[in-house]
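User: hey, got a sec? need MGAT4 conserved region domain-containing protein folded
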Amino acid sequence: MRLDANKWTVFPGYYNYLHVFRASVVKLLPRKSKRMLSAMIIFFLFVVFAVSNIFMIKRMLRLQQYQSFVNGDDIPRMRSDTAKQNLSSTMSIKELISKYKSDQIILQDIGCHNGFFPQISSANISKLQPIMLTPFIKEKRRLVFAIPVVSRHYILETMQSLFSSFCPCLREQVLFVMMFANPTDTEWLQNTAVDILSYFSKEIQDGLLEAFIIPPLWHQLLLPDSFNSTFRDSNERMLWRTKQNLDYFYLMNYASRKADYYMQLEDDILATAKYSKTIMNYINLKEGGSWFSMLFSRLGFIGKLFRSDDVKYITNAIAAYYKIKPVDWIFSDVERNLFCSPEYNDGLCQEACSASRVTVIPAQFQHMGKSSSLNGKKQWIKERFFNRSCRQCKRRNPFANITSTMPTHSSHTLEGGYYTYDFMWFTSVNKGDHLMISFGYPLKLTGILMVSGVDPALHDVFSSDTQLFAVKKDKNEVLLANFTIHGDLMTRLAGTEVIALILRVNSNHSTWVILAHIEIDVE
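Assistant: Yep! Here you go:
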């Protein structure tokens, strides 16, 4: 039996390996069995190599799809014929926009900014209402994620990332609001709306996702035909950033009414596996604090969270300066005006602004798009601390002596997890083990947060029978909370005086345990 090398060109190099292996084995066998066994060996190896190549090809396709997403290329997608027919059977997006007349006035006070927007004072307010693609959600939630969507091809991957990592336990507390900000790009809008209605029909039905189109009249009235350039920007860039300011204003004005807390996202991001639970834990922990913003990413407006009542400071500033400055500069002005005294030097001003922020590391969102909404502009920025710790960044936890019966990985120590934005990584966790945080003197605590099972080891969590105790001045221990089934613990305290905290393990753990986001708030 002879192998024909021409038949093996699909598998480069395999012919030589098979031939050598066959020759070596055949020499050791009786002559009668050589032909049959040789054929069996070759057939077996052919199957092995074929299967391995199938997996290799699948992996290459996945990498190609990922790279297409990163590069902003259009990815072939299977669309739902049902959703497409439902949309086209009523009217097209173009007809929907042109014939839309709102019977329900949602933004009743859109005219309150007439001082800044005199163009809308005589406009028909019904023509300035959002054009709803999904049912309008009346119930107010705890948190709203607001996502402006422009004519790019990232939004499906973004929403898939957000929903696949979303904790079902928060469905009643959270709402995602998606605003399509290019109403004149009807072909893109038609295709994207069909995709959204198709892929996320369950989220829409469950009241988790609301989508609308910004009314065309909004841009027609407020976008000028020509610009007085500021900061030497071109006319194209002036148009882009002015439109972005108007988009942000409309979205913030609309979505901030939907919940107690407002978070701004973008349409080209990825989320961590536990982003929703982490964000909600920080909201619950810091509720009532003196912060102005929480930063779950450091890039632009991605992952910025505000109390909804405070969003008006930003929208008022946007209304005043939307033709003059980009939105991130406007936000910086808002911070400085709120927290910097005119008597402060730059150093004191930076300290005051920093004190008004709650910074969360690891970051919960990563910027993935490379094609900017500004034509011809590429965005190469990445979040440095996405799913990564920062040992140079210091937490604001009170000074304490930290001890544990659980050994830690050499590079992830007790002190690193407590004093910096790193994590503790316990390599052996068994019943009877404990972690003690001793302050040495009574402290009035207002809140405690601990999260186990973060990247790079999502399953390295404390079990739900792991408990946290407070040690009072009289040495008595008081149970504060158990870890949840998701591996996190958050408790609020009304200025309770404690001298130490003890985490007690009540069962053997088969895996290591990562403990991160250790936040101890004091009065």
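Quick note: The chain has 14 helices and 19 strands. Let me know if you need anything else on MGAT4 conserved region domain-containing protein.
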